[in-house]
TrEMBL record:
One of its GO terms (molecular function) is O-methyltransferase activity. Keywords: Methyltransferase, S-adenosyl-L-methionine, Transferase. This is O-methyltransferase. The gene is COMTD1_2. One of its GO terms (biological process) is methylation.
Length: 231
C-alpha cells in the first residue's frame, strides 16, 4: 500500500524503480583519493565486508561535518575504520573522533591505523575498546561529555540501538549537533517481524519519527541512514 506521505505515487523513488542506475549513482557521486580507494579495496577483500559503512554514506557525513564546522565526533561501532577516517577528515585539524568498539581486531586485520596515518588523520582518532553503551555512559558521567559532540554516528549492535540513541541525545550539542543512525532500512529486514535485529531497528525508526525532541529525516543512502538534530 502506498504511503500517505509520498506524494508521487506514480513515480517510485528512482533507484528503487531503476536499479540499473546504481553504478551511475556511484560513478557520478563518489570522489576518492588513491589512499581512500586503497583502504576501501583492502576492506572489501576481507570477510563481513557487507557490514562496512558505504562510501556514499561516509562521503556524505564528511560533507555535513565540513558544512557545520564539526570539531568533535563520536563513532559508535568502528569495525574496519573506513567511516572513522572520513569522520576524522570531517573534524579537520585540531578536531577529535572518539571511536567505540568491542574489539580492535577488525581494525588490525586491515592495518587501519597505517591507512589513517597515510591519510593524515591518525592523530585525530582515539579508539576505545569495550561495550559501547558503557563507553557512552562514561563519556557522559565521567568526562563532562553532555552536549559536547558535533556529530555522532551510530552503527553497532542493533539490539542496543535504542540505548545508543538515548545516550547520543545526551551527548550531542542541542540545536547544531547531528546524529546519524545507520542501517535504518537494514536490507529490508525492518519489514520482517520475525527478524530480531530488523524489529529493533523498526522500533527505533518509529520512535524517532514520533520523537518531538528531534528534527529528523531518513535517507535512502547505502542501507538507509537517519539524520537527526536535537532541538
Amino acid at each position: 500500500m502506498p504511503s500517505p506521505n509520498y506524494f508521487k505515487p506514480s513515480h517510485p523513488p528512482t533507484i528503487a524503480n531503476v536499479p540499473e542506475l546504481t553504478p551511475y549513482y556511484y560513478d557520478n557521486s563518489i570522489r576518492m583519493s588513491p589512499m581512500e580507494r586503497a583502504f576501501f579495496t583492502k576492506i572489501a577483500k576481507k570477510d563481513k565486508s557487507g557490514m562496512v559503512g558505504g562510501s556514499d554514506e561516509a562521503q556524505f557525513f564528511r560533507l555535513l561535518m565540513h558544512a557545520t564546522g564539526a570539531k568533535k565526533a563520536l563513532e559508535v561501532g568502528v569495525f574496519r575504520g573506513s567511516t572513522t577516517a572520513y569522520l576524522a577528515q570531517g573534524v579537520g585539524d585540531g578536531g577529535k573522533v572518539i571511536g567505540l568498539d568491542i574489539t580492535k581486531d577488525y581494525l588490525d586485520e586491515v592495518d587501519a591505523e597505517e591507512f589513517w596515518a597515510e591519510m593524515g588523520v591518525a592523530d585525530r582518532i582515539e579508539i576505545r575498546v569495550g561495550n559501547a553503551v558503557d563507553g557512552m555512559r562514561k563519556i557522559y558521567e565521567d568526562e563532562n561529555g553532555s552536549g559536547t559532540f558535533d556529530f555522532i554516528f551510530i552503527d553497532a549492535n542493533k539490539d542496543d540501538y535504542d540505548a545508543y540513541y538515548e545516550w547520543a541525545l545526551k551527548l550531542v550539542k542541542p540545536g547544531t549537533g547531528l546524529i546519524a543512525v545507520d542501517n535504518t532500512l537494514f536490507h529490508g529486514a525492518v519489514l520482517d517481524k520475525n527478524h530480531e535485529e530488523g524489529r529493533a531497528i523498526d522500533t527505533l525508526n518509529k520512535k524517532i519519527h514520533a520523537d518531538e525532541r528531534v528534527e529528523s529525516s531518513m535517507l535512502c543512502i547505502s542501507d538507509g541512514v537517519s539524520i537527526l538534530r536535537k532541538k
